[in-house]
Amino acid sequence: MASTRRTFLKGTAASGATLAVASRFKPLEVLAAENGKAALSEDLVPTTCWIGKQDCGILARRVNGRVVKFEGHPRNPLNLGALCPKGVGQIAAVYDPNRVKTPLARTNEKGVAGEWRQISWNEALDTVAKQLREYREKDPELILWQKGRSKAKDFYDKAFVDSAGIEKLGHGAYCSDAGYRAAEYTIGCHGVLQPDMRHSRYVLAWGWNATGAGGNKFCYITWPRQLSEARERGMKVVALDPRLRATGPHADEWVPLRPATDLAFALALCNGLIQQGTIDREYLAEHTNSPWLVKEDGTFLREGGKEQVWDTAKGAIGPVGSAGKAALEGTYTVGGETVKPAFQVFKEHVAKRTPEWAAEVCGVEVDQIRRIIRDLGDNAMIGKTIEVDGVRLPYRPVGVMAYHMAQQEEGFQAVRAQLLVFMLLGAIGAVGGVRIDAKWEIDDHYQELDEIEIGDPPYDFTLKESKYFPINSGNPTIAAKTMLDPKRYGVEKIPEMAIIHMANPVVSFPNTDVIKEAYKKFKFMTVLSPWLSETADLYADVVLPAATVEKYEGPMKANDMYVDGVSLRMPPMDPLFESRGEIDIYLDLAERAGFLKGKDGYLDILNSELELTPAHALPLDRRPEVANIFDRWAKSEGIAKGLAYFEEKGVEVKGEMTPEEIYGYAADPVFGGAIHRLYGESLLRYQRQMKAKKAEKIYWQDYTPLPTWREPTMERSPGAYDLYLISFKLVENKQSRSSFTALLAELMPEQRLHINPDTAKERGIGDGDEVWVEANNAVTGGTARLKVKTMYTQAIRPDTVGMPHHFGLWVYPGAKEQGPTPNVLFQAGEGYVACTADQSFHVKVQVRKA
Amino acid sequence: MVIDLDRCMGCRACMEACKVENNTSEQIFWMNVFRYEEGDYPDVTMKFLPRPCQHCENPPCVKVCPTQARYQQDDGIVLTDFEKCIGCRYCIVACPYGVNFFNWKDPEDNYYGLDWDDKELDSVTDGAVPPWKNPDLDKRYGPDERLVAGSGHFRGTTEKCTFCIQRVTKGLDPACVETCPVDALIFGDLDDPQSDVSQTLRKKSSFKLKEELNTNPKVRYVGQTAPQTDGREIEAIPIEARD
User: Fold this and answer.
1) What is the CATH number of domain A178-440+674-688?
2) For B78-110, what is each residue's pLDDT tens digit?
3) What DSSP character marks residue A487?
4) Of A66, A83, A758, which has the smallest distance from its Cβ to B179's Cβ?
C-alpha cells in the first residue's frame, strides 16, 4: 500500500496539485478551477467573535471570499491578537452542516421530539407575526420574550420588547444578578467587584474561575493576561474555592472553602480586620452610613426626617453631613433611647464571627484565615496615597474578584458581606483596590432597591415586588413555577406566546423538569437559533434559523478596563444556508406585526437605544437595511466614514481611560455621590413587611440589615446525601451553544463528574467509572438523578463533587452521548432560589457506582 | 521556541489554532497541552505543559527515517517530505516526545463524521474538506521546494508540527504562538542574542524535556520545573492511537 502510494507520488511529483485527484482533499486551486474560478484571492476582514462572551476582535482570513481562519485582531484592546480555543474553533460552528438551514414549521404534537417541514421565510415570518399581532391586540403581556446572555449591546432586542410592550426574561438570575443587586444596593453602582490589575498587590480570587471562565466582562483572554502580568510584578493571588480550577498555577494559596459558606468566611474577615484595627475610619465616616445612629428597633434615628450621627466634639447628635467628627463606635442615649452608630452595631454583629468559628463552618484551617486577615491588613496600606496620571488618590492595593460567587442561596448577602470586607479596608474605588466594571455613577437601583413597597396579589408572574422575592431580577425557573401553579403565588396572568432567542431553557436552567412542564403551557412558541435547540425540539411551532458570526451586531465595547474602544460584528461572508441575522428578523417581524414604524415603534426605539443624533436618526417610515443602521450609529458617534471605518479597521481604539473613569475616589463627585450602605435599613423594613403579609420565614429570613450567617437550606437534606454538588465552566465551551461543535467537542468530548479520589475509592468508584448522582431537595424531599462518568482530581474538596455546565443536549447528532447537564440536579424552588430570587448552584447529592 | 510555564493557563487555544491553521484531521494534534496535577489534597497544584515537536538539534526521527523524508532544514526546523514518506512509522518509535501522528485514514474520512457532501455547504466551499482548507499547505517550501506543510494529510504518511513553515516563511509567528492569550509561547531565533527567545532565556532559568537523551530540543521551557514523576494527567485529549 505504502509503496503504491510512493510510486504514485513519484509519478506525479511535479505538481502538488495533481497529488490526490481522487480525493476531496484537493488543493484549493484545483477545487476553485473546477468551479470556474480562475485564481485564489485572499484577504483579511475584521469582525468580532460570536461564540464567546467578550466579543474579541477578529481578523477573518478569507480565500475566494470564504473564511478559512479566525485570528485575533491585533489592535482590539480586549485580545490584542489572541483568540481562545472557542474563538478559533467556532469556524466549525459556522460551517456546521447540521445547522438549521431553513425556517421550520412543526408537523407533530408538542412535548415530544419535533418533526418539521421546511418553510419559506415569508411563511415563517407571517406565521409568527400573525400570532404577535393577535396576542398584542388581546394583551401584550401574554407574550414572553426570553433571551440568554445578550451578545453586544442589547439595543435591537430591547427595542423589540419595548415597542411590542411585551414581557421579558433574561438570564441574570442564573448568573450574577445577586451580586449586581448587592453592589447597586451597597455602593450605588451597577457593577461587579474586580481587582485593579495594574496596581493591586494582593487579590482574593473568590470563586473566580479566572483562567477557565473569566468573569463578568471578560471570558478568557483579557483577565488572564492582566493576571499574569500582575503576578510577574509580584501580585499575590489567593484562590477561595471548593475546587482549585485552572487558577492553580496562578494562585499563591488555595483556600478550599466548603460550598456556600462564603458569607461566614467574609464575616470572619470583617471580625479579624476590626480586631486587628486595619480599618479605614476616614472612609467609613465620610463615605458610608457607618456613623448613622441606629435605634434599638433597628431603624435609623431621624430628626425632622434626617438621619443623625453622634458629634464627638459636641457630645450630641447632629444631622448626617453636618460639620464635626462623627463617632463610629460607642453607645449613646438620645431622648431616653439607646442608639449606636451603625458601625458599632456591625462590630457587635460580627463579634462572635471569629476565625476559629469560621474555620469550623467553612472547613478550612484557622491559620489560613488568620494569615489572610493579616495579609489584607498589611497590603491595604491604610492611610497611604499614590499619584496616578497626576492625580493623588488613596492607595489600597487589595482587591477581589467574585463574579459567580453570587450563585448561591445567600448570594445577595454573601456579596454584601464581601463588599463590607473591602469597605472596612477602604479599598472601594481606591488605587489598587476594588474596581467596578461600570462608571462611578449612581445607578437607578441604588434608590429603587431602597424604596420597594411590597405589594399585594395579584403579582407579576416573575413575582417582582411580591412578598416572596421583593428584590428580584426575574428568575426564569421561578417564572416557570408560577406558570405551573399561579394561584399558589397569587399570580393571575401567565404568558401564552414565547419568543426564545439565544436561550435553551429546558437544558440551561434548573430544574429542567419544572421548565419542561411549564413550557408545555405556551400556546405558541418561536425559537431563533442557529441549531435546533432542545427547547425548539420539544415546544417550538416555528424555528427561525439565525446566523452565527456572519451578520451585523453591535456596538461592542472593546475595553480592557484600562484602554477604551468600540467594535462591531460584521459579516465576514454571507449568512450560511438560509440563516439571517437577528436584527433582520426583528425588523421583519415588527414590520409584519405592525409596530415597526412611527412614534414609539421599533425604529423609534432603535433611535433612542443607539442614541442616534437627529442628523443620523432612522426615518420612521421605512424598513432600513441593517448595515445602514450601523452606518448611522457610527456617524452619530462622530466617525465620519461611518460603517466603512469599521469595515476597514474593525475597532476604534479611543485610548487610555482616565483616573476619573477608573477610580471612585477620582470621580466627581467621589463615588458618584453615593453614600455606601454598610447598614441596610430598608432590608429590615422589607422583612417586617413580608412578615406582616404572612410570608413564610424561608422568604424573609435573609432580609437583614447586616449580612447574617445561617446554615444553607440544603444542609437539611438527609445524611445519606453526603456530598455537595457544585458547577463550573470549561474554557473549551460557552453556555449550551458549543459543546457539540466538532473542533471543541474534540477538545472536551464529554461530561465528567469531578471527584476526589479518596471520596471515590470509599465508594468503590474508579476513575472514569459510571456513577449515579442523586440530588435531594431539602424542602420538598424530592429527588433527581443522572448517570455520568467520573474524573479523579485531587484539586477538589473530598466532600464536594463538581460538574460543568454546557452539556445535556440531545438533538444534535452525538450530543446525547456527551453526557448530562447538572441542571437536572440543581433545584429551582424555595431554599435554592432565595432572598432575591437568584439561583443557587449548590445541592446535596449522593454518588454511587452505576 | 520558548514556553513560559508561569504564564500558560492550559487553555489549549494553541492546539485549536494549530488544527485550523494546519487542517490536521480528527484526533491529530501537532500541539498538545498536557494538564496534570501534582501532590494530594489539599497540597495539590495544577500544571500545564504545551508540547509541540521539539525540533531537536539531534533529531532521532531523522536518523531512523529510511527515505530521508524526515529531514532537518539549515535553520533547525525538522520537517517531513510527504512525497518521500512511506509510512513506515519508524519516526514514531524513535521520537521520545510522542509528537508524530500517522494518517490511518484518508483525511476526508477523518473529519468529525460530518456530512461534508452537503450540497448547500459545497456551493459555498467549492467542496473543500475541511471548509477552512488552508491553501498555503499545498505550496512547496525551502530551497528544494518540498511538499512539507501538511497539504493533503495523505493516508499512509506520518506528520507532525512544522513550526507552521507556511507562516514562518512569510515572517509570521506559528499559529500557536500568535493565538496564545497570555503570550506563554515565544518564537524566534535562538542563535540571535537579541531575539525575544534569547532574551527570555537570559532572564529565566530554563529546562528541556528529557534532557538526558541529548536530543537537544530547540523548544525550551522557562518558569516552574520539569514535570515530576507523581504528576497525574487530567483531561487528556483522545488522540489517534500511536504505536
Assistant:
1) 3.40.228.10
2) 999 999 999 999 999 999 999 999 999 888 788
3) G
4) A83
- Range B2-234: architecture per CATH: 2-Layer Sandwich (3.30)
Contact between A121 and A580 under an 8 Å Cβ cutoff? The reply is yes
- B116 and A35 in contact by Cβ < 8 A? no
Average of per-residue pLDDT across B198-216: 96
Q: Closest chain B residue to A254 measured between Cα atoms?
A: B42
CB contact (8 A) between residue A95 and residue B6: no
Enter the CATH code of domain A713-849.
2.40.40.20
A822-848 per-residue burial string, b: 16 or more CB within 10 A, e: under 16: bbbbbbbbbbbbbbbbbbbbbbbbbbe
Q: Would you tell me which residues 157-216 of chain B have a C-beta closer than 8 angstroms to some C-beta of chain A?
A: 157, 178-183
Chain B residues close to A83, C-beta within 8 Å: 13, 17, 179, 181
Domain spans in chain B, listed from the N-terminal domain onward = 2-234
**Cβ-proximal residues to A144 (8 Å cutoff; 6+ apart), any chain:** A166, A167, A168, A169, A495, A497, A498, A499, A522
Q: Answer whether B150 touches A (CB < 8 Å).
A: no
User: For residue A273, how many other CB atoms are within 10 A of its CB?
Assistant: 24
B67's CB contacts (< 8 A; 6+ apart) are B84, B85, B86
Residue of A nearest to B232 (CA): A793
What is A42-94's CATH topology?
A: N-terminal domain of TfIIb (2.20.25)
3-state DSSP: chain B helix, strand, coil percent, rounded to 5?
A: 20, 20, 60
- Chain B environment of A23 (Cβ under 8 Å): 106-108, 152
Could A96 and B11 be called an inter-chain contact, meaning their C-beta atoms sit closer than 8 Å? no
A768: alpha, beta or left, given left = phi > 0 and alpha = psi -120 to 50?
Answer: left
Determine the residue of chain B that is closest to A68 in CA distance: B132
CB contacts, 8 Å: B116 with chain A:
24, 97
Lowest mean pLDDT among A99-103, A590-594, A740-744, B228-232: B228-232
Partner B contacted by A44 (CB < 8 A): no
A573 part of contact set with chain B, CB < 8 Å: yes
The 8-class DSSP code of residue B146 comes to: B
In chain A, where does the domain assigned CATH 2.20.25.90 lie? 42-94
Please state whether the peptide bond connecting residue B130 to the residue before it is cis, i.e. omega within 30 degrees of 0. Answer: yes
Q: Do B37 and A32 touch (CB under 8 A)?
A: no
CA A435, A437, A441, A443: dihedral to nearest 10 degrees? Answer: -120
Q: Which strand (E) or helix (H) includes residue B32?
A: strand B32-40
User: Which amino acid belongs to residue A437?
Assistant: D
ipTM passes above 0.95: yes
- Tell me if chain B has a CB within 8 Å of the CB of A285: no
Q: Is the pLDDT of residue B242 over 50?
A: no
For chain A, residues classed under CATH 2.40.40.20 are: 713-849
pLDDT of residue A1: 31
Instruction: Tell if the CB–CB gap between B11 and A256 is shorter than 8 Å.
Output: no
Residue A33, chain B, CB below 8 Å: the answer is no
How many residues does the structure list for chain A? 850
Q: Please work out, in degrees rounded to the nearest 5, the angle formed at the alpha carbon of residue A225 by the alpha carbons of A224 and A231.
A: 85
According to the model, what pLDDT value does residue A22 have? 41
B8 and A32: CB-CB below 8 Å?
no
Burial of A517 (0-12, 13-18, 19+ CB in 10 A): middle
Q: Provide the phi-psi class of A840: left if phi over 0, else alpha when psi is between -120 and 50, else beta.
A: beta
The CATH 3.40.228.10 portion of chain A extends over 178-440+674-688
